[in-house]
Structure formats: C-alpha cells, structure tokens
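Researcher: Please translate sequence to structure tokens.
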Amino acid sequence: MPQRFLLAALFLAVAGCASPPPVSVHTKDPVSSTLQGDATRPAQAQWVRTELYFSVGPLEGEEGVVSPARWREFLDQEVTTRFPDGFSVFDAYGQWKDHDAKVPERLATKVIVILHESSAKRESDIEAIRLAYKRITGDLSVLRLSQPAVVSF
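Model: Translation complete:
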C-alpha cells in the first residue's frame, strides 16, 4: 500500500512538471490561404529569393569533401544565426568548367534558398555567409542568384 501511494505521488509530481503542449501551426477552419496578422512578415514588404550554391566536394574522391557534420556546423554558425526564421537546403549536382580546363569539374552541391526582405542588412548577411564559406573551404566562389519574389505565408 505505501508503495502505491509513493508511486501515485511521484506520478503527480512528474505530471506537474510537464510542459504545456506546443501551440499548433495548423488550422481546421482556414479563412484564407495566407497567414494573417503576422507583423513580422508584412504583406507590403519587398521580398527577395536568394539561392546560394556551395560545392561540398568532388563527386569522386575524398579530397576537398565537406563532411555532413561540418556542413551542419556551417549552417548553425553562419546561416541560422543570420536567418533564424528559416531557409531551405537542397542537395544538387553541379558542374562547371574553368577557362583552361579540358573537362568540367563535377561537384556534390548544396543549395540554400532564403526568402528575405530587400534591405541592406539582409544583403550584408548574404555576403557574410558567402565569405565565411570561402574562408572555411578555400573555394574561389559561392554562386549567388537573387531575384524579386512575391511571398505569402
């Protein structure tokens, strides 16, 4: 009998420490296809879609390969700190041929897509990410493609 009492008391104590469930980001009765009333993402903002292309190493061979752990570290330290609201990363195949090369270089590639407001601060953040990767890997370039975007959340 005393064991059951202790067990019940322990259960109630642990249950009292539980965190409340997270607020859902889903709705069962939407009134619009867009997220309404989010002042941090104003509808009238001028948005840009920026794609950054990163070589993570040649397809064949291990020389110059950026490990998955090192890539995650780069994302955590350089990208997430500058764009904590989010971005997307895609695996890709890339190739390019230098002017004097006989054959193209075939590369494992990561593409980061960032949707951001058009501002000097965001431009600076993008350039800081590119520079950081070049310093880390010794690569000569990180391809950037930026274009205006119509964004709705």
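Researcher: Any highlights?
Model: Residues 40 and 77 are 23 Å apart (CA to CA).
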